[in-house]
Amino acid sequence: MLFSISWRNIWRNKVRSLVIIFSVALGIFAGVIASAFFRGMADQRIQKVINTGLSYIQVHNPGYQQTSDFANYIPDAAKLTDEIREISNVTGVSRRLLIQSMAASAETASGVLISGVIPDEEKKVTTIHSRIIDGEYFEGISRNPVVIGKKLAEKLNVKVRSKIVITIQDMDNDITSGAFRVAGIYSTDNNMFDESNIYVRFSDIQKLTGFPQNAAHEIAININDNDNLQFILSNVKSITENKLDVQTWKELSPEMNYLTEAMDMYMYIFIIIILLALLFGIINTMLMVVMERTKELGMLMAIGMNKIRIFSMIVLESVLLSLTGGIVGIIIGAFAAKIGETHPIDLSMWAQGYQQLGYDAFVYTSLDTVMLINITILVILTGVIAAIYPAYKALKNDPADALRIE
Amino acid sequence: MNVIEIKSLTKIYNSSEVQVKAVNGIDINVKEGEFTAVVGPSGSGKTTFLNMLGGLDKPTSGEVKIGGVDIWSLTSRQLIDFRMNNIGFVFQSYNLIPVLTAGENVEFIMQLQGKPKKERAQRTKELLEAVGIGDRINSRPSKLSGGQQQRVAVARALASKPEFILADEPTANLDSKATTSLLELMSNMNKKYNTTFIFATHDQRVMDKARRIITIEDGKILKDEYFNRD
Ligand SMILES: Nc1ncnc2c1ncn2[C@@H]1O[C@H](COP(=O)(O)OP(=O)(O)OP(=O)(O)O)[C@@H](O)[C@H]1O
Ligand SMILES: [Mg+2]
After folding, report:
1. A102 and A31 assigned to the same domain
2. Do A120 and A228 have their domain in common?
3. pLDDT digits (tens, 9 = 90+) for A369-396
4. Which residues of chain A from 4 to 43 reach within 8 Å of chain B, CB to CB?
5. CB neighbours (10 Å) of residue B230?
6. Could you count the other beta carbons within 10 Å of the beta carbon of residue A17?
7. Whole-prediction pTM value?
8. Which domain holds residue A361?
9. Which ipTM did the prediction report?
10. Which residue in A has a C-alpha nearest to residue B108's C-alpha?
11. Which CATH number belongs to the domain containing residue B81 in this structure?
């Protein structure tokens, strides 16, 4: 009955309670929407980094990670690639030859990282092929095609079919050059990436450098779902007999992993600040409640409500008050965030700056259930904290005095 | 059998320089089944006396024994439970929990006592019928007249099966018709359940019904008279 007393007590002063409920609902709504938005933004950013080159899992020669030395390659990469491709839930495996080089046009030159890839395999791992804005992905040019980023194309002032000269150090540490022709120009919205990454056919660069035919510096693995990451990771590790570095995107790009965590933490801080502001409103309301009901509380104590029950009754009223607002806010917020999962929010007005940093102009929200549960807990906690002082005041009531005041 | 035994009960209020001896050495016993009025002029100490009997106001000195238990030697926790189980209260006003219906108000105290649901429901119904408002079991107090509210309060006080019921000016806010019928009711309940009633009053009609009248003045007993009302 304590529960129904507390619940009905809320509605004794409807306007006052509704004001509190509305403000809690508004605050929580803002918190839910903001967290879904920023989480969505972070998820998209991570997904994009994975899709444009990082991939879910990479395999390297243990020495490569430290020195990126051309000589630190995986000798039997072709065989490993075939084996990894057999693991279930693996959707693509690409073996890459990586080499730092100078790319020069008739006008100027720029430092780039060349990825020598087998186009049909690379297509299954990254999405560069779907981001071609001019020309085609390794097609239309029969000899030494190269795919470059938009930013680099602008810098070198080259177009599709233009010639680029690539200068590298080969296996014998001699400087060699090769002439390549632009087959396609891609754009990932990340200017830094676009300026420094170019793609050539594995066989072309392999011949130019004298690199072993079946080797690679990197094996990039694509999978169907991040949930399968650990399972596939352990499979790949056993295939490589733990002799190679096998790392997930989380290790390869810790900053991407921290991005989600940091985003979440900022959101909790944001929500706690909102709740802190609401806390004072609830304390104020509960103090009024206790003051108004001095006689009633005195009567309750007289007839046998002990302190624990009085205390619980007031805490319960405060919790129900905040929780009602919280649940309304969560439901509306979750509903709006759900819509945002399929209807992206258009940031193109401000997107110039974001794109430089690798964020999309369209943000799909991403709703996290754990976050919603934690928000609910925080709201309950707020209700409890808000009630402590008023409830303490209520306990200070002396029934004899309370009943005497006329 | 004595339900209440009071020995040299005293209450002194120390309010800013002046000492008020609200109750000044009262010795009295109350027997089971009594229907007793405590009367006296305003400020004579009736409320103070009743509050000390009811375990609401701590005496400066003296002793209150209820069913043999010295209630002021109990801890405050024990005292709350003791009140709940042994004393029924009917106040002048603010008797009922406004958000609960008449029935729930009566049931509430039995729930605090931990009585099983079935017993609660049955007793609630029986008591509300006994006080003559069985048809208003689902009404909130605000939908009841002052007299009806006091009837619910009497039913609530009876619900816990107390040793006695304390009523401090229960009719003060009632018109004369409601006063007469509430008295009638309390007197009937007193006979029906043999429940001891002690009430403070100014009201002549209440005194006329009482079978014992204790007159207090300046915190002392002036008269203690018994009447045969049959
Ligand atoms: N909390 C208190 N502090 C100081 N003095 C008090 C307090 N309560 C009561 N008194 C004093 O004690 C005396 C007795 O008061 P009490 O309320 O018991 O009288 P009463 O007989 O019930 O009066 P009434 O008929 O007006 O209800 C009065 O002089 C009153 O002013
Ligand atoms: Mg009085």
Report:
1. no
2. yes
3. 889 999 999 999 999 999 999 999 999 9
4. 4-5, 8-9, 12
5. 3
6. 20
7. 0.83
8. 2-49+256-403
9. 0.93
10. A1
11. 3.40.50.300
